[in-house]
From TrEMBL, chain A:
<keyword id="KW-0560">Oxidoreductase</keyword>
<dbReference type="InterPro" id="IPR036856">
    <property type="entry name" value="Ald_Oxase/Xan_DH_a/b_sf"/>
</dbReference>
<keyword id="KW-0500">Molybdenum</keyword>
<dbReference type="InterPro" id="IPR037165">
    <property type="entry name" value="AldOxase/xan_DH_Mopterin-bd_sf"/>
</dbReference>
<dbReference type="GO" id="GO:0005506">
    <property type="term" value="F:iron ion binding"/>
</dbReference>
<dbReference type="InterPro" id="IPR000674">
    <property type="entry name" value="Ald_Oxase/Xan_DH_a/b"/>
</dbReference>
<dbReference type="InterPro" id="IPR046867">
    <property type="entry name" value="AldOxase/xan_DH_MoCoBD2"/>
</dbReference>
<feature type="domain" description="Aldehyde oxidase/xanthine dehydrogenase a/b hammerhead">
    <location>
        <begin position="18"/>
        <end position="132"/>
    </location>
</feature>
<dbReference type="Pfam" id="PF20256">
    <property type="entry name" value="MoCoBD_2"/>
</dbReference>
UniProtKB/TrEMBL annotation, chain B:
<dbReference type="GO" id="GO:0046872">
    <property type="term" value="F:metal ion binding"/>
</dbReference>
<keyword id="KW-0001">2Fe-2S</keyword>
<keyword id="KW-0479">Metal-binding</keyword>
<dbReference type="InterPro" id="IPR012675">
    <property type="entry name" value="Beta-grasp_dom_sf"/>
</dbReference>
<dbReference type="GO" id="GO:0051537">
    <property type="term" value="F:2 iron, 2 sulfur cluster binding"/>
</dbReference>
<keyword id="KW-0411">Iron-sulfur</keyword>
<dbReference type="Pfam" id="PF01799">
    <property type="entry name" value="Fer2_2"/>
</dbReference>
<dbReference type="InterPro" id="IPR006058">
    <property type="entry name" value="2Fe2S_fd_BS"/>
</dbReference>
<dbReference type="InterPro" id="IPR051452">
    <property type="entry name" value="Diverse_Oxidoreductases"/>
</dbReference>
Length: 754, 165
């Protein structure tokens, strides 16, 4: 039986269930010292002085550094989407001249235990001349660091993309619809905070950072470059990772500091952040305002769409460069034809925590924008919202569909999709007409209940390539080494299933090594829903090469022609004689290694797609919203392990519900963050979660990889804001009411009074 | 801050004699002094519940309790849940029903559920949901956690664990 498509139990789980996991904070080394960051209490201001004497005098304190002590370290560079002009906005490891958000690292304390490090950090005094913070990305740009460079303004870049004849689109329009739509500031918030342990081997000089995640190879190279070391002198090692969601594993100031300190202090250095720090220092995300203008015909067909949007980038431009804005600009049109499109995305610096990617970056925001537009068109023209979508969806016979613009430097080419078919299946699954009638009856009876449906296109499988090595071990297990990373999503199991599918070896006999820079020369890590597509394809290629090599080596041992040999259940079998030989036995008898490499390249991303359905009940008395039912229909091309995919989808939907209803980083007018604990930054508990149904489809395999797979990690979150907003409108009978997320009780209360 | 107290914690049936400052949390004592890193710290302010352990059979947030307060108490952590190689029914159910992804919150959920089901084996699904709402998970969306605990509760009722702990 094929190992692909089966809901096998995960290989990863046992140590995680017994307490034997090794997360970042679980690493320790003899003689380790503890690092604590002193963070700016001020949102924006010029640093006059940082007084560290008192901290240094505390018994147990080993060193206190400010920017002056590490003046040789360059700022943290971009990993992705380097856009001309962004360089001056990069973040230094410790603030220089100015602080630009509450939480900006200004000094760092090293002490022999974490309690003393924290005591000492509180004794560091920052003398900062306060400036008026900029907290509105749509306001006119202001000086980034007024005294250092008065001409450098807070608009770091503008991303423009365009196709089609806009003038013609508007000239013949039956209606023109303008809207302003906003998605609030929220982010991944993995349950494990960040942390690292850096150890330099005094004999070899090799620096090892434990607690790596997401992109270990890239970060190894960056850390080496910043510290003036050769890449082979730096090793990054990933253990268990307590959730990623885009934010964890990017190179942050603290990662560089632990490594620099391990080198300069000559002792192992450990750092574990607390939750308050995490909420003000790790990447935030979303926070976009879109101003759109659409020309539509009488059927609701969008002839042309113009969007100007503003991304609130926060205090600095971090490793993602222009990624979020670029993706938002490129993928806003989603599943619709939209023959003319013009977008201008402004990347604006403010005095909030710097932003980066969070699960479905740019798509959560633009799906909200685009699907709100579809609902507005339906309301304006008196059409059914599903009909409006039908006339706009890209038909199957137009696939592959060339959007004519680029995303992340790759041509946007929708590889496959049966959009109308999925819409029909989804509406059938929920019993659309009956459900609408049922909700209408409940509304007549006095309940504020409604239905919202939103379509989306995701993207996955970002290249450029991925390598795996695979080798049969003496104990007859197979070891796969990949440069991919695991952030808890089940990479080991999925890769083992793909390998097992070729070799017939049960997954329990396959070990997957990931996130270890000393085990494989290259690796691109885990982001952009790329692992199953890229690494999975490389595993398949390697397994097929291993199979061919096993047969070639077995032929003389079995005295058989290779054409009569097959690989079944991990053994080479002769169809003629019935003789068999196991893989480890082939190694033992032939005296040769049984190993292989797989390299997979991809020039284009691929594009999974889906539909979210939300049914909500609004309690007008308390401005509360209860999600009664939720469905995600998602076509992933081919499902390696449906149980894991459903797990991804349901978990992502929970995060999406958080972003739609609860989660928001609010700042007061001084730029003080008001959500720096879990009592203020509210994430869904199981009480807020409805039952989530998953309609998993494999109708449109990707023609761009040998497995046909598309990424499954993000589609559960993409359309949540859009679907819930539509459902709330419907429940209240007020089309177009919701234009901003999250729909917090406070915001809904204000809307209901209007 | 140099004032230290010598205390004895009974963790998973084993005595640990520690010298700790009064301000040392139970979580830090378990993780750093006893070397039991299965108890995780997700927020250190008592909201997420990742650090939940059983103190005299009751679930507590070990980040909100000082080690000195647990002197002489029986503390149970996730490391004590399995009996040798034999996983606890809750652990088995989480594995079989994909009740974990990154696994960081898992020890807290396991201990919370274990404590709740020992106190009342007949909890309804709604009561279980209510209890589990006191912990946070960021990966699973909770569906499979609730399913795992409910299925384990059924099995535990069918074959109650022996009284020895």
């Amino acid at each position: 039986m094929s190992a692909i498509g089966r809901s096998l139990k995960r290989l990863e789980d046992r140590p995680l269930l017994t307490g034997d996991g090794c997360f970042a904070a679980d690493n320790r080394a003899d003689g380790q010292v503890h690092m604590r960051i002193v963070r700016s209490p001020i949102a924006f201001g010029r640093i006059l002085d940082i007084e560290t004497d008192e901290a240094k005098a505390l018994p147990g304190v080993i060193a206190v550094w400010t920017a002056a002590d590490i003046a040789d370290l360059p700022p943290i560079d971009f990993r992705m989407t380097r856009i001309a002009g962004l360089e001056p906005y990069r973040q230094h490891v410790l603030a220089r001249d100015y602080v630009r958000y509450v939480g900006d690292p200004v000094a760092v304390v090293f002490a022999d235990n974490p309690y003393i490090a924290e005591d000492a950090a509180e004794l560091v005094f920052c003398d900062i001349e306060e400036e008026t913070p900029c907290l509105d990305a749509t306001a006119d740009p202001v000086a980034f660091m007024p005294e250092r460079d008065p001409a450098l303004l807070s608009e770091a870049a503008v991303i423009t993309k365009s196709y089609g004849d806009m003038e013609a689109a508007f000239a013949g329009a039956a209606a023109i619809i303008e809207m302003e739509l906003k998605v609030g500031r929220h982010t991944g918030v993995p349950l494990e905070t960040r942390g690292a342990l850096a150890v330099r081997d005094p004999e070899t000089g090799v620096l090892t950072m434990y607690g790596a995640a997401k992109v270990p190879h890239y970060n190894r190279d960056s850390i080496a470059r910043m510290l003036g070391l050769e890449p082979e002198q730096v090793r990054l090692s990933e253990g268990h990772v307590g959730g990623g969601f885009g934010i964890r594993g990017e190179l942050y100031p603290e990662d560089v500091l632990v490594c620099a300190a391990a080198c300069r202090l000559g002792v192992p250095v450990k750092w574990v952040e607390d939750r308050r720090e995490h909420l003000m220092a790790a990447n935030h995300s979303r926070d976009q305002v879109h101003r759109i203008k659409a020309a539509v015909d009488a059927n609701g067909f969008v002839r042309g769409l113009v969007d100007t949007f503003y991304t609130d980038q926060g205090g600095y431009v971090r490793t993602h460069g222009g990624t979020v804005s670029d993706l938002a600009a490129a993928l806003l049109p989603g599943p619709y034809l939209i023959p003319a499109y013009h977008v201008e995305g402004h990347i604006r610096l403010t005095n909030k925590t710097p932003s980066g990617t969070y699960r479905a970056p740019g798509r959560y925001e633009t799906t909200f924008v685009r699907e709100r537009l579809m609902d507005a068109i339906a309301a304006r023209l008196g059409l059914d919202p599903m009909e409006v979508r039908r006339v706009n969806l890209i038909p199957e016979d137009r696939m592959p569909f060339d959007r004519g613009i680029e995303a992340l430097g790759t041509h946007v080419l929708y590889d496959s999709g049966k959009y109308h078919d999925l819409l029909d299946r989804t509406l059938t699954r929920i019993g659309y007409q009956d459900l609408k009638a049922d909700l209408a009856r409940r509304r007549v009876a006095g309940e504020a209940v409604g239905l919202g449906i939103a379509f989306f296109v995701e993207k996955s499988g970002l290249g450029p390539h991925d390598l795996v090595t695979m080798a049969v071990q003496p104990d007859d297990t197979i070891e796969i080494v990949t440069g991919a990373a695991s952030v808890g999503q089940g990479v080991e199991t999925a890769m083992a299933q793909i390998c097992s599918d070729v070799l017939g070896v049960p997954i329990e006999r396959i070990r997957v090594i990931h996130g270890q820079t000393d085990r494989i020369a290259i690796g691109f890590g885990a982001f952009a829903s790329r692992v199953t597509v890229m690494t999975g394809s490389a595993v398949k290629i390697a397994a097929e090469a291993l199979r061919d090599k096993a047969i070639a080596l077995a032929a003389p041992l079995l005295q058989a022609d290779v054409r009569t040999l097959t690989l079944e259940m991990g053994c080479v079998v002769s169809r003629d004689s019935g003789a068999t030989i196991g893989l480890a036995e082939i190694v033992a008898q032939s005296g040769k290694d049984l190993d292989a490499e797989g390299l997979f390249r991809a020039d284009h991303m691929n594009y999974p797609y889906g539909i979210h359905v939300a049914q909500v009940r609004v309690d007008e008395a308390v401005s509360g919203i209860q999600v009664e039912r939720y469905l995600v229909a998602y076509d992933v091309g081919r499902a390696i392990n449906p149980m894991l995919i459903e797990g991804q989808i349901v978990g992502a939907a929970a995060q999406g519900i958080g972003g739609a209803l609860l989660e928001e980083f609010i700042y007061n007018e001084e730029g003080q963050p008001l959500a720096t604990s879990f009592a203020d930054y509210l994430m869904p508990t199981c009480h807020e979660m409805p039952p989530v149904e998953v309609l998993l489809r494999e109708d449109a395999p990707s023609p761009q990889n040998p497995l046909g797979v598309k990424g499954a990690g993000e589609g559960g979150i993409t359309a949540v804001g859009a679907a819930i907003a539509a459902a709330v409108d419907d429940a209240l009978g007020r089309p177009g009411l919701i234009t901003s997320l999250p729909i917090s009780p406070r915001r809904l209360h204000a809307l209901l009074r209007r | 801050m140099a004032n230290k107290h010598v205390i004895t914690l009974i963790v998973n049936g084993k005595d640990y004699t520690l010298s700790v400052e009064a301000r040392r949390t139970l979580a830090d004592a378990l993780r750093d002094d006893c070397g039991l890193t299965g108890t995780h710290l997700g927020c250190e302010h008592g909201v997420c519940g990742a650090c939940t352990v059983l103190v005299d059979d009751k679930p507590v947030r070990s980040c909100l309790m000082f080690a000195v307060q647990a002197e002489g108490c029986s503390v149970r952590t996730v490391e004590g849940l399995a009996k040798g190689d034999a996983l606890h029914l809750l652990q088995k159910a989480f594995w079989e029903n994909h009740g974990l992804q990154c696994g960081f919150c898992t020890p807290g959920f396991l201990m919370l559920a274990a404590g709740a089901l020992e106190a009342d084996p007949d909890l309804s699904e709604e009561e279980i949901r209510d209890i589990l709402s006191s912990n946070l998970c960021r990966c699973t969306g909770y569906q499979n956690i609730i399913k795992s605990v409910c299925l384990a509760a059924n099995e535990m009722r069918a074959c109650p664990p022996s009284a020895d702990r």
